[in-house]
Design a protein that fits this description.
With 174 residues, the chain is mostly beta strands. It has no helices and 14 strands. The relative contact order is 0.15.
Length: 174
Amino acid sequence: ADVVPRAAMNENGDFVIAWASAWVESWDYVQRRIYARLYDATGVPETDQIQVNSVPISGSTDFDVAIGGNQRFAVSWYYERWGSEVTETGTTEVYVRSFKAGGIPTGDELLVNNSNLGFFDESFGGPVVSMLHDGRIVAAWFSHGNNINTLYPITILVQRFDADQFAPQQVHDH
């Protein structure tokens, strides 16, 4: 089933819609793919459905979409991959992928953060992405720290990306 739509519009009225599509592999295993579709200012589709993430996501996920000038757009997402019940470890990963006009990827999805976790030791979420007219991107997300069941500082993490090389420029913790 297609669930969780997101939308973004640029100053020209072009817009992109992104959504997560989920299907159940078994009673306890759900796979998700993130898709996007670009439209011009009149609502005419500029692309077919585009698969954003190359590897299906299992576990929790959230995502965001942004659009700049010349119909460039970007999608950010995170997901938690849990380990076995024996090891009780996993990872939380935050990704960004950028596209040129026509839905052409500027490259592969880019891992912008990775945390090897003890089971529920740390939690990331709320990935957001923004794009300037020239295609520069900023992605941000939050970390709950070491224990999601107690009071602790929340850390905001930010990563900026160059428009052409899609290379990280800086990382800041706030």
